[in-house]
């Protein structure tokens, strides 16, 4: 599997073998710290360094969810490969659809992202927040679809770019969430989407949304535990409950046991 990542103004292509061995293609020799940066980006993208033990222990005490976890043994969350990509995507989904946001995001990458050709195949990385923030109004409207969406995208991109990315990954969850919510144009859904789907912070999830309620019914039946009960049981790993419930409940070959 190959995927392009942005390294400064360039693109490099990470190649993963079946045993998760990592090779890196680039247009020049990379310094040790640059290779380490790409290794860190790949690890975060595939959540390879996540300690799942707390979540797995909680799931083992939750009969229906334990069934799902066993069916999805080894599953780790695949995230957005960069903060810029996730920020743009979730901003574009506001008052829109996932299909629309995905199409717009792909166009931004195709036309603005750095690229590298490996074995005759063109690989493109998503551009930086700075690149998107530097677009003129007409250009940004062309990518976003209308002025209102373009204005929101510019505001959110500028606000997120002003935050320290490493701190977003490692800072206290409540403080990071507060900082994201302070960015104009970021509401509760976008903040939690960035925290879970981009930054890999499983401390919470918008469990009251229809898609998570449906996931809970898929796991537990027609009378599933509510958000408060799930948060009490899974604690700071409830985001991983949400990921497994939405991703893997359909993987179970036999009917799920009925929750007591």
For the biggest sheet, the summary is: 3 strands, antiparallel
Low-confidence regions? none
Order of helices and strands: EEEHHHHHEEHHHHHHHHH
Number of distinct helices: 14
Rounded to the nearest angstrom, the radius of gyration is 19 Å
Counted beta strands: 5
Strand order of the largest sheet: 1-2-3
Cα shape: globular
Distance between the termini: 42 Å
Strand content: 5-15%
How would you characterize the overall build of this protein?
It comes from Phytohabitans rumicis. InterPro entries: DNA_glycosylase, HhH-GPD_domain. Helices cover 54% and strands 10% of the residues. It contains 14 helices and five strands. The chain has helices at residues 32-45, 53-60, 63-71, 83-92, 98-112, 129-133, 137-144, 147-161, 165-170, 173-181, 188-198, 210-220, 227-234, 238-248, and strands at residues 2-7, 10-16, 22-25, 115-118, 121-124. Strand 1 and strand 2 (10-16) form a beta hairpin. Helix 3 crosses helix 14 (238-248).
């Amino acid at each position: 599997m190959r995927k392009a990542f942005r390294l400064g103004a360039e693109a490099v292509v990470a190649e993963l073998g079946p045993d998760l061995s990592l090779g890196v293609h680039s247009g020049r020799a990379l310094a040790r710290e640059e290779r380490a940066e790409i290794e860190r980006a790949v690890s975060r993208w595939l959540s390879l360094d996540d300690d799942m033990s707390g979540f797995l222990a909680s799931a083992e005490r939750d009969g229906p969810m334990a069934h799902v976890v066993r069916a999805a043994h080894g599953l780790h969350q695949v995230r957005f490969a960069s903060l810029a990509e996730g920020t743009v995507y979730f901003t574009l989904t506001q008052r829109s659809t996932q299909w629309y946001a995905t199409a717009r995001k792909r166009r931004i990458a195709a036309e603005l992202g750095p690229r590298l050709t490996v074995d005759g195949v063109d690989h493109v990385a998503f551009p930086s927040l700075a690149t998107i923030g530097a677009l003129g109004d007409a250009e940004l409207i062309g990518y976003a679809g209308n002025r209102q969406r373009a204005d929101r995208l510019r505001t959110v991109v500028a606000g997120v770019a002003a935050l320290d990315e490493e701190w977003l990954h490692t800072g206290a969850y409540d403080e990071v969430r507060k900082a994201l919510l302070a960015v104009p144009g970021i509401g509760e859904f976008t903040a939690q989407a960035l925290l879970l789907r981009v930054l890999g912070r499983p401390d919470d999830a918008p469990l009251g949304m229809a898609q998570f309620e449906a996931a809970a019914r898929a796991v537990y039946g027609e009378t599933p535990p509510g958000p408060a009960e799930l948060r009490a049981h899974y604690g700071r790993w409830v985001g991983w409950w949400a990921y497994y419930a939405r991703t893997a409940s359909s993987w179970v070959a036999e009917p799920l046991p009925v929750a007591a």
